[in-house]
Amino acid sequence: MESVCNIEIIKDGEEFVVRMQLANGEIKEYRRENLEELLTEMVIALQDELDE
User: What is the C-alpha separation between 29 and 8, in angstroms, rounded?
Assistant: First the structure.
């Protein structure tokens, strides 16, 4: 089994924050007040990364 990324989800005041560390070491961060929108954005970004 191969790790694709590590995902950290935290709440920072009124915002939710997602930090993804990809297998190549790249870190991406996303911030939104709405958790559902944030998770949708994260999944789309992850799909884009895996399609490359």
Answer: 9
Q: Which pLDDT score is estimated for 42?
A: 94
Euclidean distance between CA atoms 16 and 26, whole angstroms: 20
Answer whether 31's CB lies under 8 Å from 13's CB: no
Phi and psi angles of residue 24, each rounded to the nearest 5 degrees, phi first: -85, 5
Residues 6+ apart with CB under 8 A from 28: 19, 20, 22, 45
pLDDT tens digits, one per residue of 22-51: 888 999 999 999 999 999 999 999 999 888
Centroid of chain to Cα 21? 8
